[in-house]
Amino acid sequence: MDKRKCKYLILGAGPAGLSFANRLLEQGESDFLVLEKEKEAGGLCRSMHVDESPLDIGGGHFLDVRSKKADDFLFRFMPKEEWDSYERDSRIQIGDDLIGHPLEANIWQMSLEKQVAYLKSIAVAGCSLGMPVPKEFVKWIYWKLGDRIAEDYMIPYNRKMFGEELERLGTYWLNKLPNVSFEETLLSCLTKKAHGTQPGHARFYYPKKYGYGELWKRMAEKIKDRILYSTDVRVIDFTANMVNNSFQGEVIINTIPWTEFQELSGMPEYLKEKIKTLKYSSVVIEYIPEKLAAQAHWIYYPQKEIPYHRILVRHNFCPGSKGYWTETNKERSIKREDRFSYENKYAYPLNTVEKPENIKEILEWCRERNVYGLGRWGEWEHYNSDVVVERAMDLADLMQG
């Protein structure tokens, strides 16, 4: 069989692969090919129609407003007029209290007795006392937030989300978390208003008539003649820049999980061993038709007796819909035949202590051979979709530069 050759061979038609390919096309470069395992594009950001409304099968995915560069690019495929804008309303269920997120900025919504207890705990946390920053995530939680928030919320919630791997996580990724000092927590209690740096999606866009997956379907439509679906990528030959012994690219852009490859021909054994250290968590998305009274867009649940760790309240951001969907670590999920559910094997790359050095070494070796990791799985980073888009644009611009 003749081998198919192209300048850019792109592995995966999720947000990273689609953004890179469409950015190339905008610049007049059409010599590329995208290989996609599934029958449709979108990756973790795909949507399905469930109970007469869209449901995002990858969990909660929204378009953040922070990257104008990424948003303006995406609006070329799905105009801004087709999106609603929301101020994020996320809550945490702590006992009988349903309070705002992040917890440390919203304990003012609790009783005075609870506020005092939490404030006392934060005041004597390592962070407040000037102690060195720990390198392990679990120790960091106590250092930053004190034992009350750690044991009432952060430890049980993150253990539900990440399982036993929680003990292996580092602290280098914590820029994704809110940053609220003791002084800001105290100020919040005095002014009855949240203070401190807010988390991602403080403001976000969501389509008016569709699920988030509609955006990526439209991007795929622009390059439909350059995508091969139902093509499972299993083999890379680094000596010939060949994939599956059938496709050859001058440059290979990998956006799929490195752990999915069955054969990495030409890669040294020590790097293959480093790939085996890359960890991830799997989640199950389950749809519940019940309409909730809560006005929140999503709610976090640290309680051990509840299997899922968060819910997305669909009818509060998807007009005309009803119900909500849950997100549960696969290890805690219980299959129910009477409900729609979808399993995502690759949901979150885990930020283990040893990961930064290992993935850096893997990617540097690959780049020297014109193979580039890109996006959440190609770079093994917990990027939101807007970050992935901007990184894909930057890489395409650099290569075409």
Descriptive notes:
The protein is an alpha/beta fold. It folds into two domains: 203 residues, Rossmann fold, CATH 3.40.50.720; 97 residues. The strands form four sheets. Strands 1, 2, 10, 11, 12, 13, 14 and 20 form an eight-stranded mixed sheet that branches. Strands 8-7-16-17-18-15-19 form a seven-stranded mixed sheet. A three-stranded antiparallel sheet has the order 5-9-6, with no helix packed on it. A hairpin with a 4-residue loop joins β11 and β12. The longest helix is centred in the middle third of the chain and has 26 residues. It is globular. It starts with a strand and ends with a helix.
Q: How would you describe this structure in keywords?
A:
alpha/beta; globular; 401 residues; 7-stranded mixed sheet; 23% strand; single chain; Rossmann fold; 30% helix
Quick rundown:
The protein is 30% helix and 23% strand.
